[in-house]
Amino acid sequence: MNRPTPKHIAPDLQFPLLDGNQWVLADQNPDNFTLVVFYRGLHCPLCKKYLQQLQELLPEFEQRGVNVVAVSMDTAKRARLSRQKWELSNLTLGYGLSEKSARDWALYLSAGVKDGEPSEFSEPGLFLIDNNNEVYYSAINSNPWGRPYLPSFIKAVDYIVHSGYPARGEML
Predict the structure, then answer these.
(1) Buried (b) or exposed (e) across 104-116, using 16+ Cβ within 10 A?
(2) Whose CB among 57, 94, 151, 159 lies 3.0–4.6 Å from 15's, allowing a Cys bridge?
(3) How far apart (Å, rounded) are the C-alpha atoms in residues 35 and 29?
(4) Is the pLDDT of residue 90 over 90?
(5) Closest alpha carbon to 13 in 4, 21, 23, 5
């Protein structure tokens, strides 16, 4: 299986944003990194907590030259409900992630089994992409728990930037 690999160009990624624009990874120009957070969708209470914490930490990421975006396979309507119900007014929020893109990013896919779940959705993933559009770090989960702890992740970005620590895990 192909998967996003450190020190290799990230897979193509583009999706619509709730503000009406199209987000394209190749067009990003961060000082240091782009942080892409894939979340399960409106039905996931753990995603709610994770994205709320991400929004709280946005100033910390921005100070470190990290652009942040979150996206799911939800429809525009469900993404708008997430933004409203979860109070995510400051977080750049995308929707409509295609199954192909989810697979290109090696995300686990799940079939809905409970009321309120879409028929298909991706499980969580978090990727740090450097300013050369290469994968620096990836965390892919098959369930909603076990995601990187965001406050520690900020400290990791500090260490990476200040020490020049290289991406690891590049051997295929």
Answers:
(1) bbbbeebeeeeee
(2) 94
(3) 12
(4) yes
(5) 23
